[in-house]
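Long-time lurker. I teach an intro course on protein structure, and each term I like to show students one example going from raw sequence to a predicted 3D structure in token notation. This year I'd like something fresh instead of my usual example. Would anyone be willing to generate the tokens for the chain below so I can use it in lecture? Attribution to the forum is fine with me.
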Amino acid sequence: MTIKVVRGNPTPEELAAALAVVRARAAAASAAPPGAPKPRDGWSDPSRIAAHRLPQPGPTAWTRSYWPG
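-- Reply from a regular --
Happy to contribute to a lecture. Here you go:
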């Protein structure tokens, strides 16, 4: 795997921190058994919307009723 700094001039500490995050994510992804379900993304979690009260009726109520799927 090759990582290239495209813009900016990171310090050695900043570059080491970024690489540590990338390596940790890669290790976590490879540790999961094949076919294991991926964790659900918070943006598509229906409970995020259901936890709030429903929109009040009105001319723009349809814009607030979107349910991400």
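Some talking points for your students: The first helix runs from residue 12 to 31. The mean pLDDT is 77.
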